[in-house]
């Protein structure tokens, strides 16, 4: 998580270190990205269990726990299931964004590999993930943390594209604009799916997902 703050406040130096380190896919995933995702989801899960979430549409706090459950696991089943799904969405967001960045870079005759694209996206998304620690607060809107996080990610990405992807100077800005569109689109879709549930806009108890897997969200 400390790396994310360096990327925000000292982006040039932080990206230079990342580019020189040339970490492997397994290292970035296992040592940096997954622990950060788990920290974020655990913090939000703790907030939901402690205070719930304010839903402006209904002008009330929603309690996501089930006080009728016999076991502790049953009481927090909804929260655990939601955070597991959210962690999977965040990981998929990074992996998909990296793949799209690689495909776009190839149209600019850039001979980078998936590792460079994954490195770029894994570290560029870290400010967005860190900001989402604020989601533990009961009054914090999911869209507020996304808006702040995506602005920081777009700023950090601007510094990372030329250092890690190393496009031709004439193509660097075009690749950055394309990457910016990718991160806004993919992170926005991931945020939309989770925000709708947190804000009470969708009811997973009567969804197709719950019909297929009735143990996911207990009423």
Q: How would you characterize the overall build of this protein?
A:
The protein is an all-alpha fold. The protein has one domain. It is built from ten helices and two strands, in the order H-H-H-E-E-H-H-H-H-H-H-H. It has a two-stranded antiparallel ribbon.
Please give the structural blueprint.
Blueprint: H1 2-9, H2 11-21, H3 25-50, E1 53-55, E2 60-62, H4 72-75, H5 77-107, H6 114-124, H7 126-131, H8 142-165, H9 169-198, H10 208-212
Antiparallel strand pairs: 1-2
Helix pairs in contact: 1-2, 2-8, 3-5, 3-6, 5-6, 5-9, 6-8, 8-9
Keywords:
219 residues; mainly alpha; two-stranded antiparallel ribbon; 10 helices
User: How many strands, which pairing sense, and closed or not: the largest β-sheet?
Assistant: 2 strands, antiparallel
Structural class: mainly alpha
Globally, the shape reads elongated
Strand runs, count? 2
Average residue pLDDT? 88
Order of helices and strands: HHHEEHHHHHHH
Spatial order of strands in the largest sheet: 1-2
Q: Proportion of β residues?
A: under 5%
Counted by DSSP, the helix tally is 10
Tally the structural domains. 1
Low-confidence stretches: none
Q: For the terminal residues, how far apart are their CA atoms?
A: 36 Å
Radius of gyration: 19 Å
The percentage helix is: over 70%
Quick structural summary:
The protein contains ten helices and two strands. It has helices spanning 2-9, 11-21, 25-50, 72-75, 77-107, 114-124, 126-131, 142-165, 169-198, 208-212; strands at 53-55, 60-62.
């Amino acid at each position: 998580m400390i790396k994310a703050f360096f990327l925000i406040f000292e982006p040039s130096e932080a990206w230079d270190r990342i580019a020189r380190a040339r970490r492997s896919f397994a290292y970035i995933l296992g040592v940096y990205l997954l622990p950060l995702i788990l920290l974020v989801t655990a913090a939000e899960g703790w907030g939901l269990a402690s205070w719930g979430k304010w839903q402006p549409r209904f002008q009330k706090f929603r309690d996501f726990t089930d006080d009728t459950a016999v076991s502790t696991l049953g009481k927090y089943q909804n929260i655990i299931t939601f955070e597991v799904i959210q962690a999977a969405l965040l990981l998929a967001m990074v992996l998909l964004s990296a793949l799209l960045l690689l495909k776009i870079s190839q149209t600019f005759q850039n001979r980078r590999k998936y590792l460079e694209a994954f490195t770029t996206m894994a570290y560029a998304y870290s400010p967005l993930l860190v900001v989402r620690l604020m989601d533990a607060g009961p009054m914090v809107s999911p869209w507020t943390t996304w808006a702040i996080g995506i602005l920081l990610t777009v700023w950090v990405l601007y510094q990372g594209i030329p250092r890690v992807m190393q496009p031709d100077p004439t193509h660097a800005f075009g690749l950055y604009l394309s990457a910016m569109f990718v991160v806004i689109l993919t992170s926005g879709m991931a945020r939309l799916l989770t925000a709708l549930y947190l804000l009470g806009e969708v009811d997973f108890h009567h969804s197709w997902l719950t019909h297929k897997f009735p143990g996911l969200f207990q009423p």
